[in-house]
Amino acid sequence: QVQLVESGGGLVQPGGSLSLSCTSSGIINKVFNMDWYRQAPGKQRELVAGITRGGGTNYADSVKGRFTISRDNAKNAVNLQMNSLKPEDAAVYYCRFNVLGIGYLWGQGTPVTVSS
Questions:
Q1: SS3 of 62, please?
Q2: What confidence tens digit (pLDDT) does each residue in 14-60 have?
Q3: Nearest to 81 by CA among 106, 107, 51, 40
Q4: pLDDT of 101-114, one tens digit each?
């Protein structure tokens, strides 16, 4: 069964940067939207950023200007560059792919901790 594999989470100080990556563990068909979500303890999962196959992007207001989403269609991979991190960005980050013929696939989540 194909899974999404995330990497890049960890501990960073406020103001620091992290880069998250997500790709599939096996061969999958065309991927439409690729998204990053996050869920902090006690809060609902929220959309952080999304990118269409053509490269159109959208961001949560809270991360605009600080986070950048990008994708590599040939590798079926998505990246989230996170700069100027704040304590309120701490959460488990999940990638999600909308895959032709399958529907939505989710990653297992990678934790991001922002603390001094």
A1: helix
A2: 999 999 999 999 888 899 999 999 999 999 999 999 999 999 999 99
A3: 51
A4: 989 999 999 999 99
Average confidence (pLDDT) over 65-85: 97
Query: Residue 77 and residue 34: Cα distance in Å, rounded?
Result: 9
Give dist(CA 92, CA 40) in Å, integer.
Answer: 6
- Give CA separation, 2 vs 17, 25, 34, 86, in Å: 29, 6, 16, 33
Length of the chain counted residue by residue = 116
Q: Classify the phi-psi angles of 65: left when phi > 0, otherwise alpha if psi is within -120 to 50, otherwise beta.
A: left
**Spatial distance between the Cα atoms of 62 and 51, rounded to a whole number of angstroms:** 17
- In contact, 97 and 67? CB cutoff 8 Å: no
Query: What is the DSSP code (8-state) at residue 107?
Result: B
Gap between the Cα atoms of 9 and 29, Å rounded: 27
Report the C-alpha gap between 94 and 83 in whole angstroms.
Answer: 18
Residue 101 token pair: 């013929």
